[in-house]
Amino acid sequence: KPVADKPVADKPVADKPVADKPVADKPAPKPPTAKPDVAAYNKPGEAPDLVPVKGKITIFDFWATWCEPCKKLDPALVELAKKYPSLVAVRKLDVVDWDSKAAERYLTPGGFDLPHLKIYDTSGKRVLEKSSAVGKLEELIDQTKALVEAEAKKRPAAAPKATRVDIKADANGFAPSRIAVTRGTPVTLAFTRTSDKTCATEVVLVVDGKRIEKPLPLGKRVEITLTFAKSGSIPFACAMDMHRGTIDVR
Predict the structure, then answer these.
(1) Is residue 238 annotated as a catalytic residue, yes or no?
(2) Residues 192-207: pLDDT tens digits?
């Protein structure tokens, strides 16, 4: 006799342990980036008082939509603001046309043309007031750059930002097992153990005679920030010295 089909009760599938399952590595947060200080300063055609930004070189850029050289000057000013976000502020004034209040107050009395810049130093003193003559736009850009770079040199150099190297520890050891870093520049070694089946449950290295030993919890990023003063090769390993790696300082 044919065997009658019996309904099969739904059975929960038992969770099976997955051996050596890698732990997802969360992306590192990106460091905040300073935005260039560039903004419109007036309503089109209006002529507000020029108030420099305190503590910054303030570039008042007079322009109009029909001014072709203005379109070439703009990216050069934005690039300066990007390069020196804590030093440079660009304020753009749309002149609109020659019968506007902006032109009547700031351009016509001095016989200025477009594009036109009025630049104030960090103390609020006007240090440049100039329009670009035909074929002289690059000269105006170079003068502006020279003003900014001269002031930038007076300021203390910012400490170099730490570069970051991600290193995974699994059953095969450390990966990458050999890394290159720059002497004198801070570097953050970010270790993440992604496997339970590895002896690399900690990392050990000796820098300038000092032993550094850090546990590597499963799935958690462990960061070590160092600055290497001398060139050379520095080994790192697990505590049992079975898995090894090398830091090449150049």
Answers:
(1) no
(2) 999 999 999 999 999 9
pTM over 0.85: no
Range(s) of the domain holding residue 241: 163-249
The count of domains in the chain is: 2
What are the distances in angstroms from CA 169 to CA 51, 181, 199, 203, 226? 56, 19, 9, 9, 19
The 10 Å Cβ neighbour count of residue 55 is 12
**Would residue 67 show up in a list of annotated catalytic residues for this protein?**
yes
Token representation of residue 100: 């506007």
Q: Is residue 21 part of a domain?
A: no
Query: Which candidate in 38, 59, 67, 181 is catalytic?
Result: 67
